[in-house]
Amino acid sequence: MAALARITHKAHLPFPASTTTTTPSKPRAARICMSLQENGPSLAVVGVTGAVGQEFLSVLSDRDFPYRSIKMLASKRSAGKHMTFQDRDYVVEELKVDSFEGVDIALFSAGGSISKEFGPIAVEKGTIVVDNSSAFRMVEGVPLVIPEVNPEAMEGVRLGTGKGALIANPNCSTIICLMAATPLHRSAKVIRMVVSTYQAASGAGAAAMEELELQTREVLEGKPPTCKIFGQQYAFNLFSHNAPVLSNGYNEEEMKLVKETRKIWNDSNVKVTATCIRVPVMRAHAESVNLQFENPLDEETAKDILKNAPGVVVIDDRAANHFPTPLEVSNKDDVAVGRIRRDVSQDGNYGLDIFVCGDQIRKGAALNAVQIAELLL
Predict the structure, then answer these.
(1) Which of 243, 309, 346, 359 has a CA 20 to 30 Å removed from the CA of 1?
(2) Which residues in the chain are classed under CATH 3.40.50.720?
(3) pTM of the predicted model, to two decimals?
(4) What are the tens digits of pLDDT across the range 53-70?
(5) What is the pLDDT of residues 287-344, one digit of tens each?
(6) Residue 64 phi/psi, 5° resolution?
(7) Helix (H, G, I), strand (E, B) or coil at 46
(8) For 192-221, what is each residue's pLDDT tens digit?
(9) Which of these, 86, 91, 93, 89, lies nearest to 47 by C-alpha position?
(10) Residue tagged active-site, from 177, 241, 276, 285
């Protein structure tokens, strides 16, 4: 229960006008004192120099995650670099077979191929791996976890047993969607969900964010845009998500929403369809979600449910036409929900439309992984 309490500690704070993080500041010395604990687990961050790896460190610090030691792991080209974390200097180590000796929890965000190679090695060493890639999400027996949604999936995974385990972090678009849809699903049972995503550059990593910034300057200056990451102009444009298109016409990102929702909800019969689009937004994804229910649910009841849902904040001011935006949720922990309205294409109160925004790097990746680690404490 203490771990679940940590998940909800920021759940119902209204967003200020500023787009800076909602995490309350603490004296620097106090943060370090609270985090470095002899009885805490030993940590490793794999892919520490990447965008999500850096966010892992930020979230660990913000949430005063207790640890007795931490390893900074990355590729050979990053090895030897110095990093400062909580006023202590660390040298980035090359990820190797023996990197996980004595490591209790490893947070992975270095890509699927690295996870497939080193994840099982870490587990064999007795490490509990929280993996941010897609490598193990649909593997039977590997928990796919959003702590506010299905913490029970981790039952049986415990620290201090000497037994390693894999836990998968869902895809960012799935996390953001289900943070809002699940409380409504619990109340009225979703039988069909239609999702349209508007995904930011952050979902493709730091290089994509840098290219969007570069392209914006180039286009405004009348220069041809540099198109290395996506192969086409991103600035002032939008296009189908760059994930590979499958034989059924859906791309991999869209099918992740379909398959992961069914696994997380433990419901193979729920109908899910998705269209995923890249939009020229720097950070934070937006999603339009249409829900069809087995039981009636009116929009006012839905608002009340969402206002009381952990990790969710409602921004739904019709008079002011003020609803969630990516800017408002950037660097925030909570997922914002608005445009809560009855689906007029369905009779009665059996359908709702909602609009959801969440920080892809934060709740869509690093925060969710750290919350999973917190459940292990």
Answers:
(1) 359
(2) 2-169+364-376
(3) 0.89
(4) 999 999 999 999 999 999
(5) 999 999 999 999 999 999 999 999 999 999 999 999 999 999 999 999 999 999 999 9
(6) 50, 45
(7) strand
(8) 999 999 999 999 988 999 999 999 999 999
(9) 93
(10) 285
**Catalytic residue flag (residue 227):** no
The count of other CB atoms within 10 Å of the CB of residue 191 is 16
Mean pLDDT, to the nearest integer, of 211-239?
Answer: 97
Closest residue by Cα to residue 373 from 88, 24, 132, 12: 132
Q: CB–CB of 59/370 below 8 Å?
A: yes
Q: If you average pLDDT over every residue of the chain, what do you get?
A: 91
Q: How many CA atoms lie within 13 Å of 113's alpha carbon, on the beta-carbon side?
A: 1
Q: Is 172 a catalytic residue?
A: yes
For 63, half-sphere exposure in the C-beta direction (CA atoms, 13 angstrom radius) is 28
User: Tokens 């409602």, residue?
Assistant: 314
- pLDDT over threshold 60, residue 17: no
Count of helix runs (H) and strand runs (E) in the chain? 10, 15
Q: What is the CATH number of domain 174-360?
A: 3.30.360.10
Helix (H) or strand (E) segment spanning residue 32: helix 28-35
The one catalytic residue in 172, 177, 276, 357 is 172
Report the Cα–Cα distance between both ends of the chain, in Å, rounded.
11
